# Entry
Amino acid sequence: MNNRLSFRLAMIMLVMPCSLLVAFTHYPTIRAVINSFWNNGSSRRPSRFVGTENYHALLEDDRLAQVLINSTIYALGTIPLAIGLAIGMALLVNSRLPGTALMRLSFFMPTMLPMIAVANIWLFFYAPGIGLASQILDLFGLPSINFLGRTDTALASMMFVAVWKEAGLFMIFYLAALQSVPTNLKDAARLEGASAFRVFWDVVMPLLRPTTIFVAVNALINAFRLVDHVIVMTEGGPNSSTALLLYYIFEVTFRQRDFAYGATLTVLMVFLLGLLAIFQFWILNRKAHYQ
Amino acid sequence: MTTSKSLATLLGATSLTIASAAAVSAADLEFYFPVGVNAPAVETIQALTDEWAAANPQHTVKAVYAGNYEETTTKALTAANAGQAPQVAVLLSIDLFTLIEEDVILPISDIANSDADKEWIAGFYPGFMKDSQFEGKTYAIPFQRSTPVFYYNKDAFREAGLDPEAPPTTWDEMIEVGKALTVKDDNGNVTRWGTRIPTLGLGGAWLFGGLVVSKGDVLTTETGIEARMDTPATLASLEFLLRLAEEEVMAPGGITWGDTPKAFLEGQTASMWTSTGNLAFVEENAEFDWGVGFLPGGDGPGAPIGGGNFYIFEDTTEEEREAALDFIRFMTSPESAAKWSIATGYVAPRPDAWETPEMKEYAERLPQALVALDQLEYAEREFATFQRAKVTQYLVDAIESVVTGNAEPAEALAKAQEGADKVLGDYQ
Amino acid sequence: MNRGLNRILYFTLAITLAALWALPFMYSVWTAFHDEKYSANFQLGAPWTFENFFRAWQAAPFSLYFANTLILITIVLVANLILCTLIAYAFVRYKFRWAGFLFALIMVQLLISPEILIVENYLTLSRIGLTDTIIGIALPYLTSAFGIFLLRQTFLTVPKSLDEAAQIEGAGAWRVLWNVYVPLAWPIYLAYSLVSVSFHWNNFLWPLIVTNSPEVRPLTVGLSVFATVDSGVEWSLVNAATLMTTAPLIIAFIIFQRQFVANFMRAGIK
# Structure
């Protein structure tokens, strides 16, 4: 449309609604940067300008190093796993097997639950000795595993919780994509003697690429945004092995009441997310060239 | 103005003045408190609050359940920062320094300065008053105080051929007894551990404090600026925890606080170290004969004191302070304290509460309730300093890293001490 | 022969996966209906009971939490629908120099959602005195980048001829919006509503920070306050409370399964 935007319309349609968005996205980012140059104040000792002191603290923070490693492992682990499972589930639900409606219900159900309900359910499930996981292990004569009490299993256990919640949602997106794959393409491939696997890999998968991109972006956002389960299940432990970046920000700011360091960490987080966004953009652009 | 109008105005003004004069002595209290899911506890608080409200109709009081201890403190501070502080709250005793630093509470001794008041304050167990005072003033009044105690399954003791009336009292005895109590199934998997000591999070840090006290040292002092994390006592305590796992008396790895009572009730562990506040829960649900003893100690008995105190907030009017003080006096009166203690297992904070007929009957019916009280003389304050959350995190990290096998005790403690000193250095 | 075997194989795989997937939730539901002592000892023939639900309901003001959640999602949804429509309309129908820049600026919110900036957003809210209010919880979400994105995509597909025809009949900008664009985007509005409702019903971290008193707590925060305890956790009670708070969404989902799925799909494809 080529209409010109009058000032009045611009105000109502754009400026006012967008200012809300800016107020809670861009403005806080700028404020975080500003606040990161001041130290934490309290009633007895008001806050003063300290320059890059908070950033020095960042570099020396061992816990932060562990947090960043955790967040990376978490993202790299949950995203492919959720996508892989989602594709598999979509294929199963889309097939002509009996009971697909029930299957679909089962896979999608976790998505409808709030993360903290999921966290409670899994906390109960993982409880060593008394939880369902231990009861099942016991049936097979295996010792119960202290999932959330061991540093080598805790993060993986949390990752699985996240995948359990997300995969169903991604399955739906893949279902939509699968159902829009033209059957004549698949039939043609099959006529040429391609096995079911080949049909899938060579014909269907490429058509799923836009969905995969969409799902991957969603999964990435969630991997950073959702830390409810960490708050409820492990509080970042044991020994910081399940602490994710946003959880660390929450803990530093609201439990330890260090708002200045929290602001510094926020700046770090926005910076990292920005890098990720640029990286994604770059990859997408490259792929586009091949189209 | 006409005569009738001016008369009306005069009448209006007069009635307004009279009304506000009556309102001057009335206060609206908002009272934050932390309790668990344990429904009888919430009901009891509500009942006590209602009782006081009924006896003081000129005031109103609203009891707000704010979550667990940490959350209640966070909420109280958040509300105070936003200018909407509650007037009175039950918060962790160890939050004293944080509350003072953020300037949100006032010394109760400043407003409770009549002779009767002073006598009242002196009537609390000195053990509980230790962490309520700072720089000579009393900032808090004990309400729901506790020490952890050693719960044990008497039936399991009998099964193992042990004397059910003789729980272990030293660390060596704990290991010996624990080994006899641990039961394995045909596959070699442990179905019942000898004991269970929470080691994760703040609960783990609390119990760790008890281990340290039993070796003759403390983790922090009343100045709030000293954290003693790297001492022979702490080293010995960590080594004890490791030994328990090595000798297969306790499950290896991190142990959560929340699941411990359930594990005990399910027979997953023959004994547990947890707060006396779980007494009512265990009594109601145990399907076996059980007993309570002192925490087994290193060089002698030792325990940390925990729980919550009443605080009055700074941002209050005189009437509100009066009302709050009166409310606190009521809630800690012998009858109220008795009711609260019986409903939960918390230790009533005043000797005269233990003298009431209800408490005497309770103690007879459930002698396990007396153990925490008797242990009080060997108990020391819980870990508390300025910037408590941050400094305690160093301790928690040290304990967790050791029990999960990721660090050696000596280096973990040294690291914790370094971190703590850096934070507290600002205050010295 | 091969195909038959394949089918059986896939079927077994599918059923096993679906069963395993449903297990944690099903066990949680089972525990909610049985006494506490069975929560760690599964016994098929254990007696059913509603006791846990009664106790959970009485232990915390869940009806208040429900009301708060409903008010919250309504405020957010209505604001979203209106504001996102306006912004999307402006982008689609008008040309202005800074359009590209503004759009990119808006899309930033997709990645940097309000929770990421929780520290500063909390301080902002505190400064304007809206902490511990429902509107305070809703405020950062009133304009949604995702909603703008979806609606813009949808509005772009509206045939220009319809717009021009309406203009010829003398309709101004608002009329055209209401009579031409909005009706055509109806399925997307529905899809977006479902996504928005389930997102905000389940949102936890931000409401946790913003709220203090039970009067404004939504369900998620109420549930967490209920479940994190310092004394022994009673799993049957917690599971009952969990089930209670998630039941409405679940029941709605089971009844409207096909529509839900179709709408989520639609929200995704575009």
